[in-house]
Amino acid sequence: MSDINHAGSDLIFELEDRPPFHQALVGAITHLLAIFVPMVTPALIVGAALQLSAETTAYLVSMAMIASGIGTWLQVNRYGIVGSGLLSIQSVNFSFVTVMIALGSSMKSDGFHEELIMSSLLGVSFVGAFLVVGSSFILPYLRRVITPTVSGIVVLMIGLSLIKVGIIDFGGGFAAKSSGTFGNYEHLGVGLLVLIVVIGFNCCRSPLLRMGGIAIGLCVGYIASLCLGMVDFSSMRNLPLITIPHPFKYGFSFSFHQFLVVGTIYLLSVLEAVGDITATAMVSRRPHSGGRVSVPTERRRAGRWSGFCYRLRCRVITLNHVCAK
């Protein structure tokens, strides 16, 4: 770890530098291509798994983008104790996808309607914001309880559970399972095409092409689906062109049992965010101290306060987010 501390990073610009406009524009587009797909995919996965209406799914996707923008602004720009001042992008956390699907599916099987399901999921997410900021004051003790082994196993299990979702989407999704077309040649062909494109671009030497590989793969798959007549726009006719955030759109309800499950993932996401901020500080040549390489308490706590303000404001409109790079 000491080698990492003294290792230089190949920075083109320092943290406080102002690059020329054309270089800043290319960098911004690169970041946008890198984060756009991870930003909207969790909402699409949850919406498809819970068979939410097109209106609700579109609202979640829109709010995920708005919340990510607000969170990134708060994190990058320091306002007193709010914000880390680092190039930290706030985006959707995949760790919550399987949890939200499991909780929502359980409620749906018990006969709860869509509005109440969303109210409960957003309610526990809202309360979880307070858990996040509270944990920023006990991080040294939290690390003793949630060791890398514990968090690694949990993240591994979450990743393994997402394999099932990925396979279902590869074969046509939940809608195809309902219509009996799951796993036909068209769905598998489009899925294989997207997979080849993404892998191909990830093998390119250009960082811009590698980071844009997922977005390019989605575009290629979408065009192929259009040519095969697999895209249905009928459900989008009544959707608004511009979506306005509506706090507590689905009401507010809270389940303590659900919170116990979600709260565990929140604590893991806190440690993940601290690691992200620490790594960003190292790459940005910002001060970091301690044998285990941690950013200063002031910057770390400011980052968590930014996350709290962001979550508190955005949990009323969308699902869970986390600091990512």
Provide an overview of this structure.
- With 325 residues, the chain is mainly α.
- The chain has a domain at 2-7 and 26-151 and 244-324.
- The chain contains 13 helices and 2 strands.
- The chain has helices spanning 2-6, 21-49, 54-76, 97-109, 114-135, 139-145, 148-170, 173-179, 185-202, 207-211, 213-227, 256-283, 297-314, and strands spanning 89-92, 321-324.
- It has a two-stranded antiparallel sheet.
- It is globular, with a radius of gyration of 21 Å.
- It starts with a helix and ends with a strand.
- Residues 1-8, 289-298 and 312-317 have low confidence and may be disordered.
* Total beta strands: 2
- What is the molecular shape? globular
Q: Number of helical runs?
A: 13
Helix residue percentage = 55-70%
Taking pLDDT < 50 over at least 5 consecutive residues as the criterion, the unreliable ranges are 1-8, 289-298, 312-317
Q: Return the structural class.
A: mainly alpha
Subcellular location: Membrane
GO cellular component, one term: plasma membrane
Family: Belongs to the nucleobase:cation symporter-2 (NCS2) (TC 2.A.40) family.
Pfam families: Xan_ur_permease
